[in-house]
Structure formats: C-alpha cells, structure tokens
Amino acid sequence: MPRRMDTRRPKPIRTLMRAMITRRTIMAITMTTIIGTTSIASTTISTAIPMLMTTSDPVDGWDAIDESEAAALYRLMTWLSPAFPVGAFSYSSGIEWAVEAGDVADAGSLRDWLSSMLSDGTGFCDGVFLAHAHRAASMRDEGALHDIAELASAFVPSRERQLETSAQGRAFIEIARAAWNRDGLEALVAHCDGVIVYPVAVGLVSSVHAIPLPATMHAFLHALVSNWISAGARLVPLGQTDSQRVLAALEPVVVATAKRALAASLDNLGSATFRADLACLRHETQYTRLFRS
Hints:
This protein is mainly α. It has two domains: 13-50, no CATH class; 67-283, Orthogonal Bundle (Urease accessory protein UreF). It is built from 13 helices and two strands. It has a two-stranded antiparallel ribbon with strand order 1-2. Strand 1 (29-35) and strand 2 (39-45) form a beta hairpin. Helix 5 runs antiparallel to helix 6, helix 5 (122-138) runs antiparallel to helix 10 and helix 9 (198-208) packs antiparallel against helix 10 (213-235).
C-alpha cells in the first residue's frame, strides 16, 4: 500500500525556536529566516541576563574587582601555587615519620593530624610570624622586622624543619627579587640581616606589593595545608578524591587559624603538637626517606 503523504502544515520556524529557548538562556540568539530568493526576515531573541551580553555595565558585582585587587589575587595565586619553585614538594614536616609510625594511616587520621598542626602547631605559629612581618614591613619598621625574622628562625623546633622553612624562605625572596622586584624590597630584606624563614618572606614580599594581610594569610595557610596533604597522599597513599575530602574538611580549621593568627601578639606564640614536633626530630634518623623533613 502506498505511504500516505503527511498533509499537516509544518510548524513555523519561530514557534520551534521559541520552544527550544528556556527562561535561563544565557546568550543572544539571532536567527535569520530566508524566504525564497528575494525576502529576508530577521528575528532576534534577547535574554534577561545582560551581564553575559556585550555590555560593560557592572551587574551584581561581576565587575566589582578593581585593578589593584586583580593584581593582588594574581600574585597570591602565583606565589603560593605548588608550581612556584620554592621546593615545598620535597618536605613533609614530619608527616613521613608519622606514616611510618602508624599515626597517619588513612584520610581520617591525616585530617586529624593536620588539624592539630594547623590550629595548635606550625600552622598557627607561622601565621603569627607572617602577620607581624607584614605589619612591620608595611610600617617600614626595620628594627621590628629584624627582631621578628630572628625570633621566627629561632622558634623552629628541629634541624630539618629549620632547613625546610629557611630554604623555602630563601627561594621565595630570590624569586621575588628576580621576577617580582619592587622598590623597597631590597632594603627590607637587608634589614632582616640573616635567615628569613618562609612565613616571614611571604609576609614581607606581600606587604611590599601592598597585598592585604587577611588575603595573604588565608592564601598562605591554604598553600601550607595543601602541601601537607600532597605529602600525605604520596605516603599513605591516598587517592585524589580522598585528598580533596581532607582539604575540604580542613577549610573551617584554616579559617579559624587565620582569624586567631591575625589577632595574636608575639606573646601568644606557642605549640602544643608534641607528637608532630617529635616526628620532625625522629625523621632525621629514619631509615628510609622520600622527603627532606
């Protein structure tokens, strides 16, 4: 039997396009319908989201970041990225011994270990030194900056931790001089007159570049805990998803530690992570080692 011809009228193109477009369409669609060879009908459908259209008008804060804020964000993301060549990947801050001893064996125990290191140990103390170095450099108080740098270097509890923080601090300063130099940086470095540990280096350089202290603090602590997690992931080992779960779980600890460090005086310095300090000491004589601390 011959197939019946469909005699229904085709839906107009405009009706079909209207059915395809939802309320959340985020682009402008221009459709040109050519009828025959002589007439052209053009239909333009615009959305209600001008921020994604060709407009420079600020909407809902999308254009609120100014040039100086963008520069600060760019530099912090660069300086505290794992790709920034300070050699952080080669240090574990004693986590390697903690894994060997069985203190850290999975994602949960790594999270608990790092939470203590952040809030009651290295993380908090480094944050305090960063804050005071940043403020002293901002005020061009060379005497105070010298004293902070000296105290921060003396405060490190073990030889390998001293190597870790001083080597990273030296590398950070050298790269800042070579690629991110700024007026006043050389003079402040000279006034430190000795070893500049990592948190002091970050505080000093970010201050010279007029990067706000709170943003610097949060970026620094995020980089610190990220490097610890990276070491733990290689040693336990952990998968990438578990590593991200640990990082996500430590977010409130990082925020709380940053807040405390910003408000702390040098008299508030102190550590209660005896097992972590012992891990740094015992790592020096550990039989097999992947990391330098």
